Amino acid sequence: MDQQENHPKSYDRTKTLAVKPLDGEMIKPAELIDIQGGTGLTLAARRLYNKLLSNAFGPKLAVEGHDFTISLAELRGTHGGNERIGESIEALMKTVVLVRHGEGHTTRVQLLGGNDMADSQREHGTLTYSFDKRLAPLLQSSAVFAKLELAVLQAFTTKYGLALYEAVSRRIRMSFKFSEVIAIDDFRELLGVPEGKLSSFGNLRQKAIEPAVAEVCALAPFNCSIEVADRVGRKVTTIKLTWWRKTEDELRAMYAEKKALALSDLNPLLEDLSE
């Protein structure tokens, strides 16, 4: 047996992993956006996973079995306490997603591998974690990714809105494509709708699609729309997802509204300090 087989493999010639995120943004490979199997994850678990991925992002993600460390203080922003952090971590560990490569090739990946939480009751507590070893070669060849704004990720109030934001973010960078027809079952997976929930298209549109589109259009630097593309009888079989960048005036209006909301949240605090 080759001695090298006893050691973790490091994958070079990265593409997505070579991208340098700007301040206030994270890079998320498309392989971890358009997945199947993550429908049971809560909004909190999805936020926590993005934190872990953002913290680990870089060439070392292409090293099998590498350990990453993050302070629990950074993770508490997605949860109300350490107990809930633990619940989300366990949910990620139990979630196996299916990544399709085309031509019938698929990879099943556990979203989060083994981990250790140290000094969980103290301010300086840390989480040391790793990813499934199959994630390394999967991301080594990745060339498609989404640039996600960290503040926007935290602003979503539904997991459907967050999932749609990630899905459009990875498509908005395409130069000559502005829409995509998606099978309804695949779209339900993309949004993270649990099996057996919102089974009729009317309920899906009212409870998931419309709130998600509204949140994305309010928070993201782009707009999107979703409409029925095809039916078999009365059953919707495909939808059409369309996206476009906001105009300069729309962006100015959006950021002005965000600034006004931030100031309105801050004013009561300033009034308390002045008393």
Automatic annotation (TrEMBL):
The organism's superkingdom is given as: Bacteria
Q: Which Gene3D superfamilies match?
A: Winged helix-like DNA-binding domain superfamily/Winged helix DNA-binding domain (1.10.10.10)
Q: One Pfam family from the UniProt entry?
A: Rep3_C
GO molecular function terms attached to this record? DNA-directed DNA polymerase activity
| Domain Initiator Rep protein WH1 residue range list | 27-167
An example of a Gene Ontology BP annotation on this entry?
DNA replication initiation
What residue ranges carry the coiled-coil annotation?
none
The family classification in the record reads: Belongs to the initiator RepB protein family.
Listed name of the protein: RepB family plasmid replication initiator protein
Question: What is the source species?
Answer: Falsigemmobacter faecalis
